């Protein structure tokens, strides 16, 4: 079983080379049978009802709490136990894996993720990013923990190096020959069964402190707030300049794809909404889509320092998007007075590091309450159902009292203890607790 190449709600993060863009009759037949099965699930009335439920939820209408699960690395434990790859080609195997994940959602996970009769194709693209890279030590795709050697040293900071000379503006290029080759193959395989659409992530989020920590090291970054404050502003400003240039490029070349449908957005949940231009096959600008901003790396930095060093650059980026999602693992209750100033903020992460009852009160009915349930609940050989129920019941009770638009998101799963049944049972427990409270 090869490493799962599809992430966060089945979004391909890459395309395929011209050499990989091949499809045998054997593989085509296998994919078509899976696609027909997926299309049959997509035709069920409850799938359209799920889409409407997410739309109402993200548009701040009253709904029951929603449940969404994406296992991330946990898929690499679940998938080998649920199917065996039959396709022979490298690209075909990745397509087969994608289809099987959708079928597993429909048949076994049964959370609130809708199944649609669509197959998504990315671009074969290359992004130069910042032009300078850290040296990674360890194999993240092999499940190992990693560390890294950062390229910007203390000596460079002391010498007041030229930030613009070292950190480049990202440049995007697209291999159109390869992209059109595998897009044509997708149409040949799926036309009449699934609709082939283009969907591509140009970034996970508009991260500022993550690339800073990559280039300086996490510990060094925390010292830099004191020791090299002017240079820190300069570096964060350069990242902001780079992202704004990328946004301009993608807008000018009509390369944005919508994340306003059945698409993972931010750090969890789906972006289905009626409050953006969801009908646009190609967004006219970033104002037609969701933006995502976070700063997990500064979780232990004071709110005031966050507001001085990070927030001003996030505000510049958030201005470009029609709606915004904020946060990942950081506890936002401590910096909410600043974060709430982001323009058109709609979805807010409530992690295990937040004061969850306080966040319920702060968000009220004005935002989507994206609650990140602890992945440790399903990372053990035998799950503690009483513990899971107690925690979910308390969160749901607080959310109902405060009128939150709540969703329960299970993610960040580095392991599921090789027990797929943990996943399926957790969803069922969450449904039962929602029914008790709502």
Topology:
Blueprint: E1 6-7, E2 11-12, H1 25-42, H2 45-58, E3 66-69, H3 75-82, H4 90-109, E4 118-121, E5 125-127, E6 135-137, E7 147-149, H5 154-158, H6 163-166, E8 172-174, H7 176-190, E9 195-198, H8 209-216, H9 218-227, H10 229-252, E10 290-293, H11 303-309, H12 311-318, E11 323-326, H13 336-339, E12 345-350, H14 356-363, E13 368-373, H15 385-402, E14 405-410, H16 420-437
Parallel strand pairs: 3-14, 4-9, 10-11, 11-12, 12-13, 13-14
Antiparallel strand pairs: 1-2, 5-8, 6-7
Report on the structure:
43% of the residues lie in helices and 12% in strands. The protein is α/β, with parallel strands linked by helices. The chain has a single domain (6-437), classed as TIM Barrel. It has a 6-stranded parallel β-sheet, with helices on both faces. It has a two-stranded antiparallel ribbon with strand order 1-2. Strand 12, helix 14 (356-363) and strand 13 form a beta-alpha-beta unit. The longest helix is centred in the middle third of the chain and has 24 residues, at 229-252. It is globular and about 60 Å long. The model has no long low-confidence stretch (mean pLDDT 95).
